[in-house]
């Protein structure tokens, strides 16, 4: 990494740029295998599955640079990043403290696979640090939160998480997908590992699935060896698309911050909307904390209509601009009901306890004109 690059915007463009044969962009090395060059051990062999082709290495350097990490690892999906990281950190039957309201895929991995893998977990209220110590076990190895929770946009007590992890010798892990490095850089804040679904804001164009792990050389090295055995590598062409997409992340996310703030404020004033979850609103329970932590409040919000699930169905059918899909963080505005997509694996009781009602709508604001988006939301609400 070139340490002379001080600002994120410059790092996104210039960090990890090898300029091979003078090429401005990194070429796609569409080769599964490479000639041996005296590598030391299996993990040094140049091979796509071992995450060390020129495309992987350039991308890893850029990822490390933008969050201030010693090392980074790109993976075949966000869940590949999450699962490989957890399997590595909790190896040998470790116990995990984890935020109770999290991405549905992470929740399902815990509840459906952990026991069979000899690992355990306890859900924590990420806003109540005083309750965490009672859940510690002799084999507790890590604590895991999301910078902004999916899909209710809670903002955990991140300072307490870092402090608690240091006090008790735990690895602090955070899914930073919703905030993105534009709004929050966890390693600079004291976290040990930052995880991303790179499908979302890092890439931003709805054309690949990828993940990322960023942290110390030691931790990332252990996770890379685990991932090498599991096989969750990213194809070189997808590496190229992610590398290209990251260069515009700052301008995309800053616009999405502004647009989502306007949309959330408009929705909160609408008489048919019962509740809006967005950290940028003064009504958000942790608005002040979000102001202190983040450079922006992100492009995702969620809301409920006063007339519940049937009204949500009608509203979604009348929309013309947002695309109904389970993803987020793209240049297109995307909308979904988490109870039917990202969090459908949870029981209704668990969802409702966490505020994920059947009528909750998650909106990921794209880079279209905010006025056009608001006009479409208005006609759908009043139709």
How would you sum up this structure in a few lines?
By secondary structure, this protein is α/β, with parallel strands linked by helices.
Could you explain the architecture of this structure?
The protein has 14 helices and 12 strands. Helix 1 packs antiparallel against helix 2 and helix 12 packs across helix 14. The protein has 2 domains: about 240 residues, Aspartate Aminotransferase, domain 2, CATH 3.40.640.10; about 130 residues, Alpha-Beta Complex (Aspartate Aminotransferase, domain 1), CATH 3.90.1150. By secondary structure, the protein is of the alpha/beta class. The strands form 2 sheets. Strands 1-7-6-5-4-2-3 form a 7-stranded mixed sheet, with helices on both faces. A 5-stranded mixed sheet has the order 8-9-12-11-10.
């Amino acid at each position: 990494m070139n340490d002379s690059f001080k600002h994120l915007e410059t790092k996104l463009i210039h960090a990890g740029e090898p300029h091979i044969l003078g090429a401005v962009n990194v070429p796609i090395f569409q080769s599964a295998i490479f000639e041996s060059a005296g590598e030391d051990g299996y993990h040094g062999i140049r091979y796509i599955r071992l995450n060390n082709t020129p495309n992987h290495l350039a991308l890893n350097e850029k990822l490390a640079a933008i969050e201030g990490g010693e090392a980074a690892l790109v993976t075949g999906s966000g869940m590949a990043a999450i699962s490989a990281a957890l399997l590595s950190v909790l190896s040998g039957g470790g116990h995990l403290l984890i935020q109770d309201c999290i991405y549905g895929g992470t929740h399902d991995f815990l509840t459906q696979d952990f026991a069979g893998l000899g690992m355990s977990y306890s859900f924590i209220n990420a806003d109540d640090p005083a309750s965490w110590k009672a859940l510690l076990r002799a084999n507790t190895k890590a604590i895991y939160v999301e910078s902004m929770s999916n899909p209710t946009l809670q903002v955990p007590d991140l300072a307490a998480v870092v402090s608690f992890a240091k006090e008790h010798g735990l690895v602090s892990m955070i899914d930073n997908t919703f905030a993105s490095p534009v709004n929050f850089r966890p390693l600079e804040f004291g976290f040990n590992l930052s995880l991303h679904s790179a499908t979302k804001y890092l890439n931003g164009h709805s054309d690949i699935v990828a993940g990322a792990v960023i942290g110390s050389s030691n931790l990332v090295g252990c996770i890379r060896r685990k991932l090498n055995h599991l096989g969750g590598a990213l194809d070189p062409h997808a590496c190229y698309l992610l590398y290209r997409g990251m260069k515009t992340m700052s301008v995309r996310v800053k616009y999405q911050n502004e647009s989502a703030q306007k949309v959330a404020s408009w929705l909160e004033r609408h008489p048919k909307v019962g509740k809006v979850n967005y950290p940028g609103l003064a009504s958000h329970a942790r608005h002040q904390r979000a102001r202190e932590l983040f450079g922006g409040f992100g492009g995702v919000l969620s809301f409920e209509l006063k007339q519940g699930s049937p009204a949500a169905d009608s509203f979604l059918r009348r929309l013309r601009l947002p695309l109904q899909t389970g993803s987020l963080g793209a240049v297109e505005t995307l909308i979904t009901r988490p109870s039917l997509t990202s969090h459908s694996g949870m029981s209704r009781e668990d969802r409702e306890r966490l505020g994920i009602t059947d009528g909750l709508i998650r909106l990921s604001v794209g880079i279209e004109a905010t006025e056009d988006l608001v006009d479409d939301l208005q006609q759908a609400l009043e139709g």
